[in-house]
């Protein structure tokens, strides 16, 4: 029988590993995955989807944990609008802290220099020229509006993710400077954010087909490709048995570690090939 949360939002998370629930939210290019991860009596929300995903996520949380459901914390894998778009609405409704990697803070607090220093191709070709057209005052106002300055706290990397004992923070810079993945070594469950995806978004055919495939992050929204390659290698060495990514469906099974290792190897080869030229 469906419960109220499911009826209201039409979205019910799928349990993909013990205590790990997966849900895709949003539409089109901004469709992304969020995760409800249980720990003892509490749970943590990982990523928040695009702007406007708050009601769906709250409905899904209520369906999973009851009408008063409230996480112990919100964790962001990175500060992109399709993952952090609803963080303000959710954090302010639930009154819970939001954490991200210290290296992601300059982007999250809206430091203009950070937008230039950490610009990805989309920023360089579209966003920054548009800001220039807006003029300094309006561009600053737009950035201030999106700032998470009063909301986010820097993770203590040595302490591990707050409220999630048994999980490790895996720094995976490249897609953004302070990107993180989360790994539960006990059963080798890996939540990757956009450090790697389980669908191919770098070819139009792959994007349309949406077939499960371990793939690199979107090139046009990734800051530093050599670091993307290095982080993929780091994730491959974890030999996960379940990959839950920021876009695409969860992938499980003995073969995925090899598939990931193969991708990391090919990317490393391409990188050293291009360095040699
Ligand atoms: Zn992203």
Which distinct ligands sit in these coordinates?
zinc ion
Number of domains: 2
Low-confidence stretches: 1-9
N/C terminus separation: 61 Å
The name of the CATH architecture of the largest domain is: 4-Layer Sandwich
* SS field, number of helical segments: 11
Q: Give the % helix.
A: 25-40%
**Sheet having the most strands:** 7 strands, mixed
Structural class: alpha/beta
Strand content: 15-25%
Order of helices and strands: HEEEEHEHHEHHHHEEEEHHEEH
Secondary structure blueprint with pairings:
Blueprint: H1 4-9, E1 14-17, E2 20-25, E3 32-39, E4 42-46, H2 54-65, E5 73-75, H3 81-84, H4 87-94, E6 98-100, H5 105-108, H6 112-117, H7 121-134, H8 136-146, E7 152-154, E8 167-171, E9 180-184, E10 189-193, H9 204-209, H10 225-237, E11 242-245, E12 251-252, H11 255-276
Helix pairs in contact: 10-11
Zinc ion binds at residues 78, 80, 83, 175, 194, 221.
Question: How would you portray this structure in words?
Answer:
The protein has eleven helices and twelve strands. By secondary structure, the chain is α/β, with parallel strands linked by helices. It folds into two domains: 235 residues, 4-Layer Sandwich (Metallo-beta-lactamase, Chain A); 36 residues, no CATH class. The strands form two sheets. The protein has a seven-stranded mixed β-sheet with strand order 1-2-3-4-5-6-7, with helices on one face. Strands 8-9-10-11-12 form a five-stranded mixed β-sheet, with no helix packed on it. The structure holds zinc ion. Zinc ion binds next to loops.
